[in-house]
Design a protein that fits this description.
single chain, 738 residues, alpha/beta, Phosphorylase Kinase, domain 1, Rossmann fold, Dimethylsulfoxide Reductase, domain 2, 4 domains, seven-stranded mixed sheet, six-stranded mixed β-barrel, binds iron/sulfur cluster
Amino acid sequence: MAADARVAMQVVQESGEIVETPLTPEELQLTWNRSVCPYCGVGCGVLVGSKDGRVRKVRGDPNHPANYGLLCGKGATLPQMVHTPDRLTTPLIRASREEDFQRASWDEALERIATRWQRIIRDHGPDAVAFYVSGQLLTEDYYVVNKLAKGFLGTNNVDSNSRLCMASAVSGYVTSLGADAPPGCYADIELADSFLLIGTNTAACHPVTFERIRRRKLRAPARVNVVVVDPRKTRTADIADVYLPIRPGTDVALLNAMLHVIAREGLLDARYMQRHTSDWERLQPLLERYSPDQAAAICGVEAGQIRKAALLFAKARAAMSFWSMGLNQSTHGTAKNNCVINLHLATGQIGRPGAGPFSLTGQPNAMGGRETGGLAHLLPGHRFVAKEQDRRAVEGVWGVSEGRINAKPGLTAVELFNALADGRVKSVWILCTNPMVSMPNLSMVRQAFAAAELVIVNDIYHPTETTQLADIILPAAQWSERDGTVTNSERAISYLEQAIDPPGEALPDWQILCRFARAMGLERAFAFDSAEAIYEEYKRLTHGQDLDIGGVTYRRLKQAPIQWPCPTPGHRSTMRRYTGGVFAHPGGKAHFIAHEYETPAEMPDAQFPLILTTGRVRDQWHTMTRTGKVPVLMKKEPEPFIELHPADAAPLGIAEGDLIVVHSRRGQAQAACRVTETIKPGTCFMPFHWGSLRGEAVVNRATVDACDPISKQPELKFCAVRVEKMGHGAGGKGQADA
Ligand code: SF4
């Protein structure tokens, strides 16, 4: 590996400038291992330099197709979050939540869980226990937890924090194209001449992908166009030819209007539609109601701009669309995804170089979770709990009796915490996530923890807002301390080498689960002796499926990432799907899906007149358990904030820097105000990273937990609030979560 590591460090700055630093002589003495950044779904390849059991340095992997050596500030500072004083090194247990945690042996902790879970399952049935997992687990962890719960404990109650970020993309792809996942690849960015960025602050949330789009635009500014749709004018809009600051939640109206224009202007690809799609006749009459003028009134943007955006997309030689939480975190998230895909199907902008819809996953292995059945309605290999033939196939590989897998989908994230709160679920085991910051409507989540009989948390750090509420905490090995695989946003599977040993007694999550399975008397099915052995078993469940990885081995992945499907050892990789226009629905045609614009679940009113939307800042990751420990990242955005338009701030006597309170029907959060014209009037924005361990800027105390009826993804991007300057009303009081 040393030769590969002899590259200058390339870090993309917020300004877009690339800063290069050559390796020092000391760094050349490090041992270098190949891995992947554990933060966002871009899945940048990294080289990990270690010495004496410590990670000393990372470099962008110049050979990884996601980033070709480039990293953002989060990836560049990874070593600083590995060796911290709050790392968990032994299991911790306590008899009651009033007591302090005590160190325990692995046997003691796992026996305690096994005894309690056996009793709960005996007394209340298997659906009285649940796992809540994370898109940051590796594929092998995901596979084991699904096998354990769905195949052996008898419950489908395994859901993931990925439910909060990309479930609507899954249901969008499945309903429109017949199967999950983006059809294209990152290499399409350099081939596209039109980009639609909708509901994504790509510059902040997927910085390396944004840098590729920015470079593409800057290299051919007259030929390449960019349309950005977002109620907040972020740095993503800096490269826009057309910027559409729509009212939050009105994307369906906008996308329908764009397709209305395309149809009116005779820009439909009739040949493609006739050969490869169905159900246009259902969509066409609905589009009549979405003229640019009608949509402009709903979306709060100019009709001419909608028309311009539509023509840029339809006339492009090759057009890509990117989106993330702005579309997905909605009670109409599936509809929004379908409407984006409708645009591509109507113009033939799919299944060829430089063209296609491309959802950006938020987490490093959200895709791997989808593949291994890491949501409550899924089984490994893109199979469904509700489909009998899928259950039979999985039961066969797992060696359990026919009918063992419950036909009823398990509880999704919000449902799961509701079920804990009302006592239907008695115990939850949380792996690799911090729901006491990231879930919506935290007062409900707090009630859920209070009601739970037994809360188990696997984490790398303690305390977090969630470990504080646990009965048992188990120390997990983290990035660089174990091996395994992840799949990034472009379906590329990468292998992560182990660079160093985990601290103390910490173990990879899959090993913790296998030890627990043995404590439950399930030795034979969980006798895995390596991550590779798990991968080989999981592979069997992809045979003949759309994501067939029969040709993928650890040996091949150690050379380079592979994009699925890759069904045979001689198969190279699949950059693009549907290149022949054959989609995954029976009959091979993609479906147009018609959706009317509908308002979000909780609209502003006289009592709560503003819309609250939430999101991320560039240099923090999720709930700050890792990036919050990196001084250089904290320096860039040290304090939480609330953005408010001057037209909303002035009548309330609020000025820049004032401490203000956001109230909703569910709770409140506090932060300093940023008065800015970059946000749509009537809307306020708060990042969701800050939790109760860092003060009162806990925005998810206010957010709503209404969900999309299909994807069950909660509407974290929209709820009704009012704001007050601190000192007025009840604003000054804190609100404990823990
Ligand atoms: S955070 Fe995302 S963009 Fe940044 S280095 Fe990691 S994977 Fe790449």
